[in-house]
Design a protein that fits this description.
- The complex is a heterodimer of chains A (about 400) and B (about 140).
- Chain A contains 16 helices and 11 strands.
- Chain A is globular, with a radius of gyration of 19 Å.
- In chain A, the strands form 2 sheets. In chain A, strands 3-2-4-7-1-8-11-10-9 form a 9-stranded mixed β-sheet, sandwiched between helices. In chain A, strands 5-6 form a two-stranded antiparallel sheet.
- Chain A has about 400 residues and is α/β, with parallel strands linked by helices.
- In chain A, helix 12 packs across helix 13.
- Chain B is mainly beta and about 140 residues long.
- Chain B is about 5% helix and about 35% strand.
- Chain B is built from 1 helix and 8 strands.
- A 5-stranded mixed β-barrel of chain B has the order 4-5-6-8-7.
- Chain B is globular.
- The chains are: A alpha/beta (about 400), B mainly beta (about 140).
- Chains A and B meet through helix 6, helix 7, strand 5 and helix 11 of A and strand 4, strand 5 and strand 6 of B.
Chain lengths: ~400, ~140
């Protein structure tokens, strides 16, 4: 019997700093700014926060949870969950926080994320130089830029299912067309298919336009019980269901030894939906981790938006863009909105479900599915503005 | 018939002293392709950890014929690090040994013309870089 606390917790507040390719502010100040904004948005004081749920392997390099809480003058606090899910971490934090709140470990949980990567690109002597498998088995061959990993996946997808450059371009164009409707998106200039083909090649078949942005900034959200969120200034966004899923394969091997054309979204998304009592066809909009165009196509199939091997054809004709019937990454995603490693996907889902998304609002949106991809780990969450469970 | 020796350039070399991988480099030094294997589980373990994941026993290094096929490759055009810029574009892919098809080995691919497609038959050859390091390179078997 599942005792997962569906619909019992809610996102009560969200906050973001401006996203910039190079911020004048420190990443630490940006994280504190975004946290304060989310707490205020929830109608709470910083001293109301008594828990933290974060992706800890990235953000804690910049600022530790104790520094955040002392920096917010938050007083004493009880609960800390620091995950290791990489790009899936801020989606995973929705589950960490829900379990903590429902279990009585905390009443108001803060999740934050921020980076300052706009000014410093990583290179082989960072993470890949420290992992002995990557350092010895991959970097010398020349296999270490993230785009080279996903270039191989795209080449394999093309061989197994068929994949044209235009189909990858459709994903990039859809993200850009959504971003043009978001005043806070970093890349809002028009993009045509001709522009896509003029984009510089990085690792075949992936071009600059197929790759996530690199920028600075921070975002945060606050979760409480559903009852407490109802007394806040905004309509609650309920956690209908959420799930993490980890591969059998370790992070250092996952991009070469695990399934090339599937992520653990194939586990996390159906399980999150099952916990919510909803089906994928009940979802009005999807916010899916799009570090590369091909990564989005693969997760669309894992989640069940379309059958295996059909995502490339599915996206043709602008179908996932603002004029299409399947809205995906309505803020512009990592490709055109901001590289906030997925927390911006959570914030966008909340804004859509509050019906605060302005020109890009998905009409009558009730249910959103957010998916975070972090190599070996994946996390999915089903959010809704209906305490009865959307369309139930 | 496969190409003769290639002239691939490796601006960055591996260390060969990480214990779980030492057997790979020792075999490469002899011009042999070898992977970690557990005889009691009949299991190849790649990338190898510190013991067989199935039984907790010791892994042995077992040689395989250097023939296999391409899982997929990419032609890297962008200089992710400036040391690689002089040799771009370079082709890198995943080699699946015929005798150990659960393994995918990252390898530089030497080829003429277009990037080899998934399924292309490959042979691994070895190129000595210095006293300590011998690098595998995949060539397309025609």
């Amino acid at each position: 019997v599942s005792v997962w606390p569906s619909y019992k917790c809610a996102v009560a507040g969200v906050g973001e700093t401006p996203y910039e390719f190079k911020s004048e502010r420190s990443v630490q100040a940006n994280i504190l700014d975004a946290s304060r904004a989310a707490i205020e948005d929830a109608g709470l004081k910083t001293s109301d926060i008594d828990g933290i749920a974060i992706e800890g392997t990235i953000v804690s390099h910049f600022i530790t949870p104790d520094e955040v809480m002392s920096g917010l003058n938050a007083g004493e606090w009880s609960f800390l969950s620091s995950g290791a899910l990489g790009g899936a971490g801020t989606v995973g934090a929705l589950e960490q926080a829900a379990l903590a709140i429902e279990g009585g470990a905390a009443t108001a949980v803060l999740c934050y994320f921020g980076v300052n990567w706009g000014g410093h690109a990583s290179d082989i002597y960072d993470v890949h130089g420290h992992d002995p498998y990557k350092r010895d088995l991959e970097v010398p061959a020349g296999f270490y830029g993230q785009a080279s990993y996903f270039g191989v996946k795209a080449q394999r997808y093309a061989a197994e299912h068929g994949l044209s450059e235009e189909q990858l371009g459709e994903v990039a164009l859809a993200a850009r067309h959504w971003a043009q409707k978001h005043p806070g998106a970093l890349r809002r200039e028009p993009m045509t298919m001709d522009d896509y083909f003029k984009s510089r090649m990085i690792s075949t078949p992936l071009r600059v336009a197929d790759c996530s942005l690199i920028n600075d900034g921070a975002a945060a959200f606050v979760m409480t019980t559903a009852d407490q969120a109802k007394s806040g200034p905004h309509a609650p966004v309920y956690i209908a269901g959420a799930s993490m899923a980890h591969e059998q394969v370790a992070n250092h091997s996952v991009l070469t030894q695990a399934q090339t054309l599937s992520t653990n979204a194939r586990v996390s998304a159906p399980r999150a939906l099952e916990r919510s009592g909803l089906k994928v066809t009940d979802v009005d909009l999807f916010e899916i981790y799009d570090c590369f165009t091909i990564t989005l196509l693969i997760q669309m199939e894992d989640i069940g938006i379309c059958p295996r091997g059909t995502a490339a054809r599915f996206v043709e004709g602008g179908r996932i863009g603002p004029e299409g019937d399947t809205p995906i990454n309505t803020h512009g995603g990592l490709l055109s909105h901001s590289y906030m490693v997925g927390i911006n996907h959570v914030v966008e889902a909340v804004r859509q479900l509050r019906h605060e998304a302005g020109d890009r609002q998905v009409q009558d949106a009730e249910v959103a599915l957010v998916a975070g991809y972090g190599s070996s780990g994946h996390a999915s969450a089903v959010l809704t503005n209906s305490p009865a469970g959307g369309v139930l | 018939v496969s190409s003769a020796a290639t002239t691939e350039i490796f601006p960055v070399l591996p260390r060969t002293d990480y214990p779980p991988l030492e057997g790979f480099w020792e075999a490469a030094d002899r011009g042999v392709l070898a992977f970690p294997y557990c005889a009691s589980c009949n299991n190849w373990e790649w990338y190898p950890g510190w013991q067989c994941a199935g039984c907790g026993g010791e892994l042995d290094w077992k040689s395989v014929e250097p023939f296999g096929e391409l899982h997929a490759a990419t032609s890297i055009v962008h200089a992710f690090h400036p040391d690689f810029r002089p040799i771009l574009p370079m082709s890198v892919g995943l080699f699946v040994p015929n005798e150990a098809p659960s393994i995918r080995m990252v390898v530089r691919i030497a080829h003429d013309g277009d990037l080899p497609l998934p399924g292309a038959p490959l042979k691994i050859v070895f190129e000595r870089q210095n006293e300590d390091v011998t690098m595998p390179v995949a060539v397309v078997v025609s």
